[in-house]
Amino acid sequence: MNKITCRSPSNIALIKYWGKTAGQIPSNPSISFSLQAAYTETLIEYSEGSKSEGITLDFLFEGKSNLKFQERISSFINSVMEYFPVLNGLHLHIESSNSFPHSSGIASSASAMSALALCLVSLEKKLNGKLEFMNDFHQKASYIARLGSGSASRSIYAGYTLWGSLKNYPPFTNEYAVPINERIHPVFKTYGDAVLLVSQSEKQVSSSAGHRLMEKHPFAKSKFSQSNKNTHLMLEILEKGEQMDFILLAEVEALSLHAMMMTSNPSYLLMEPNTLALIQKIRQFRRETLIPAGFTLDAGANVHFIYPELNRNEVLGFVQSDLLPLCQQQQWIDDKVGHGPVLIKGTL
Ligand code: DP6
């Protein structure tokens, strides 16, 4: 069959990527874990195309044509053709859908671009028998995903991942993300993430625009150096299993990210009143229960409430009683540290 289907998860960063230079090079390293319930599934069906150079494509998102996405995907794939000579001249029929509601405000570029990159590399392997440019399947998929969207480079792996070069740590690079599960204390491998949906409307300022505002940001230098130090710290915390430090550092990173938005020129706010209300409630819950649970945020109003699996019953009771009333239509996603992408069998 001339089809490939890949499912790839979204991820949540604990140390944030915010600011980049040409070629999607991050200004500081970032650490995230892949989610399980929030994913994109992408199918590519290939046939002989009408052009000899590059590819042509048609695209369906959740079963319907979507010209805006189609143009973005077409220009992205054509921009990475140098890494996939075997795909030249093909026509690609691409279908993509998300496990989470389109309007949920969940960042979907990580799952979408990683699923697409995994399909492209799988297709190359199928048609060519080997990979050009890079031998390692996951490294190449992460490299290509990065060119589509920086955070997507980290969705290629299960569990915890680090993207960005780090002084004195040779395996880490700006080019692709590297899995770090071997360094992670078992207690962190089963953390839950209750994604609390505060706002489902489209963001007023895109992540790309936010990254650009870091170029002339008065606090950029200190932010990059703080996140660099925080990456080293987080690695140590993750290795040692220090749960309270983990939560406190994740919260510092989340608020530093939003502080950058509030102090950009022009400034903007993605948090909403209920984002703050949720943060206060979560901190109060931690003070009262001493459970090492806390929040992180991506570039939006939604709150990721991360907690140890051991305390799941207590946490879910609190989510139901205290947090869901602050969510839009009581909506949330019951997520956790995930198993990573899958190549869906039967279509290869
Ligand atoms: C706040 O990966 O969406 O989620 O590379 O321009 O596509 P582009 O940006 P994107 O930025 C993600 C920013 C973040 C933090 C993170 O995931 O590390």
Give a short summary of the structure.
With 348 residues, the protein is an alpha+beta fold. The chain has 8 helices and 14 strands.
SSE topology sketch:
Elements: E1 3-15, E2 20-21, E3 25-26, E4 30-48, E5 56-61, E6 64-65, H1 67-79, E7 90-98, H2 109-128, H3 137-148, E8 160-163, E9 177-179, E10 192-196, H4 207-213, H5 220-240, H6 243-262, H7 273-289, E11 294-296, E12 303-307, H8 312-323, E13 332-336, E14 342-343
Parallel strand pairs: 5-7
Antiparallel strand pairs: 1-4, 1-14, 2-3, 4-7, 4-8, 5-6, 8-9, 10-12, 10-13, 11-12
Helix pairs in contact: 2-3, 5-6
Bound molecules: ligand DP6.
Describe it for me?
With 348 residues, the chain is of the alpha+beta class. It folds into two domains: 3-183, Ribosomal Protein S5, domain 2; 186-336, Alpha-Beta Plaits (2-Layer Sandwich). It is 35% helix and 23% strand. The protein is built from eight helices and 14 strands. The protein has helices spanning 67-79, 109-128, 137-148, 207-213, 220-240, 243-262, 273-289, 312-323; strands at residues 3-15, 20-21, 25-26, 30-48, 56-61, 64-65, 90-98, 160-163, 177-179, 192-196, 294-296, 303-307, 332-336, 342-343. Strands 1, 4, 5, 6, 7, 8, 9 and 14 form an eight-stranded mixed sheet that branches. It has a four-stranded antiparallel sheet with strand order 11-12-10-13. The longest helix has 21 residues, at 220-240. It starts with a strand and ends in a 5-residue tail after the last strand. The mean pLDDT is 95. Bound molecules: ligand DP6. Ligand DP6 is lined by residues 13, 16-18, 24, 30, 107, 109, 149-151, 207-208, 211, 257, 298-299.
